[in-house]
Structure formats: C-alpha cells, structure tokens
Backbone:
C-alpha cells in the first residue's frame, strides 16, 4: 500500500543511501508514496529515472513493477539493484550518475569514451541523415557482428525455453512474455550490444553529442500467426506524450535475424515527425489520438537483415506488425540518450 502523504516526507534529491547515488532515494520515495511531482520537479525526476536505470542496469518497467508490487524499504531496494549487477556497483558508475544528475562535468572515463566516439568516422552518411530528416527513421547496417546476433538470439530462445527448430514450442505462452516483449534485461550478449561503438556513433550523430546513456531494455519475440496463435501485439502506438511540441526522442531495435517485411517486421508511419501537428489537428474533438491512430493509420513495415539497427523519432506512430512468414522475428530494443533529453510535461 502507498504510504499516506501526511506521514511520508520525500527525501531531498541529493540524499543518498549505501550506494552513494543521488536521486535514487527520492525516486524510491516518490514511487512508494504514490505522490506526483510538481511541474518544476517532474522533468528532473523523469530524466533521473532514465539515467538511474541506465547507469544501474535496471529495466525501467521492471523498476516500476518491483517498487509498485513489493513496496520495499530503501535498503531492500538498493540490495535488489546490487543483486542485478552481480553483487556490486562500480564506484565509477555512481560518480558518473551523480555528475549527470547534479550538472557537473562527467568523470574522466566517461569523457574519454565520448572523445573516442567523437573521433570516429561517421557511420551514418549524408544520405542516411537526409533519410532521417525526411522519414524520421534510419537503418544502421552491421550495428553488431553476426556472432553477436546469434548469441543474442540464443539468449532469447533460452529465456523463453523454446527452440528455433520446434515450431510447436512457439505456441507455449510463458510468464516472460508481454505482447511481443520478453522481460529479459540483463545478459552478457545484451551487455555486449550496449557497448557497440557503431551504435554509439550513430546515436551521437543524431543527438549531436557523444555523452550518452544506453538504455537497459528488453528483447522481443514475434512468432508467426497461425489458427492457434494470434498476433500478440501491441498495435500501432506511441511511447511519448503527444502534448505539443513533441521534442526529439530516439528509439531503436536490432534485428537479430534476417527479417522480411511480412515477418512481423517493425513498422512506422514514415515522416510523421514532420506532419504530426497537422494530423493531431485533424483528430475529431473528444476522440483519443491514440484510438484514432489505431482505427485509421496503417504501418509501413521495415525489412532488414541480421544486425540492422532501426532508429526512429518517437513522434512516429509505430509498432510490430503481424507475422505472416514461417519464422519468428527476434529483436533487441536498444537506444541511447543524453541526460538532459528534452521533456514535455503532462500526458496526452
């Protein structure tokens, strides 16, 4: 049960616990108390949640589920984080988080990595960047090596307890599955993908900075549709507030196997980052834009090969598409973001 506001005082943002990480105790308290941040606090705390989940390698959704369902003490919450990091948190990680959340310069290791990325040759060429500007999405080929694709795909199969050679096993629903999403956040193969310098460079080109945080996100499994197996969804959607103006935000996923357009490929409404204001104006009064999109928009699927990273502007309506092929679609969701990413208050 959430604690009554009258008996629960939120700690100061700079108050720390055993891990020495700022913001963590306030975020825990906010979730436990069920209180809503004031407008002047909301942006800071929302950014802090993303930096904390990135730096501490905890999935955003699993953090919310754990705090909401367990209502742990702060000490138990910190222990839970440590357990998910193999028993310890590197002090350098805490230092980088603290620097980002208090407006200080990043520590030397983070600065050195950013400098290394800055010095790399571009991985997105002029045509790629023009495509991004026009259509709101772009593909980075060979974002990870073929062996990394195979290792990550195997991690997905192992987590599900299914076999790529046994289609009957694809029908068996497991507790890890939520629509096409699989609740696997930490694995050596996933960690290796998050360290890809090519991915880092691509995001640095789009964000205009190499001082980025990598998401601790999950994987996806979209099996073929059959008479016994319906498309698990989700349908067309946005993962962003539609209150205008919608700022820059970048989402991404890696295809782990060659994926045809009809193979449950990821789909978007191309160019919607440029036309969304006019589209929102066209939604009838009193109608939810999200419901209107589900009823009137059709996704364009994006085919790709193993190792392709698809990056898209979060103003694009998007989602997986039904799989009408013979093989599942497997992906790893992954993106990067600066600690001061733009944010719009409210929710529409």
Residues:
């Amino acid at each position: 049960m959430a604690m009554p506001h009258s008996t629960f005082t939120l700690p100061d943002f700079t108050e720390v616990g055993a891990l020495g990480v700022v913001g963590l105790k306030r975020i825990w308290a906010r979730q436990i108390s069920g209180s809503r941040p004031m407008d002047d606090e909301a942006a800071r705390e929302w950014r802090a949640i993303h930096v904390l989940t990135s730096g501490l390698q905890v999935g955003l959704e699993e953090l919310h589920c754990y705090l909401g369902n367990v209502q742990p003490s702060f000490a138990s919450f910190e222990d839970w984080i440590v357990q998910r990091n193999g028993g310890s948190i590197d002090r350098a990680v805490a230092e980088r988080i603290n620097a980002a959340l208090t407006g200080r310069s990043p520590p030397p290791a983070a600065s050195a990595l950013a400098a290394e990325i800055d010095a790399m040759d571009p991985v997105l060429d002029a045509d790629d960047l023009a495509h991004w500007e026009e259509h709101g999405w772009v593909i980075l080929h060979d974002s990870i090596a073929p062996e990394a694709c195979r290792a990550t795909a195997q991690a997905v199969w192992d987590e599900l307890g299914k076999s790529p050679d046994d289609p009957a096993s694809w029908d068996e629903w497991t507790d890890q599955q939520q629509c096409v999403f699989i609740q696997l956040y930490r694995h050596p193969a996933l960690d290796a993908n998050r360290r890809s310098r090519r991915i880092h460079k691509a995001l640095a080109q789009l964000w205009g900075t190499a001082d980025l945080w990598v998401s601790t996100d999950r994987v996806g499994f979209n099996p073929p549709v059959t008479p016994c197996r319906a498309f698990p969804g989700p349908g067309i959607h946005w993962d962003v507030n539609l209150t205008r103006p919608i700022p820059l935000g970048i989402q991404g996923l890696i295809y782990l196997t060659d994926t045809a357009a009809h193979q449950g490929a990821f789909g978007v409404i191309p160019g919607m980052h440029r036309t969304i204001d006019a589209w929102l104006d066209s939604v009838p009064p009193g109608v939810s834009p999200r419901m209107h999109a589900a009823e009137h928009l059709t996704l364009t699927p994006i085919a790709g090969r193993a190792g392709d990273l698809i990056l898209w502007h979060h103003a694009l309506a998007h989602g997986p598409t039904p799989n009408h092929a013979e093989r599942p679609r497997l992906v790893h969701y992954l993106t990067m973001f600066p600690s001061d990413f733009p944010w719009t208050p409210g929710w529409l």
About this structure: Residues 5-102 form one domain. The chain has two domains: 5-102, 117-337.
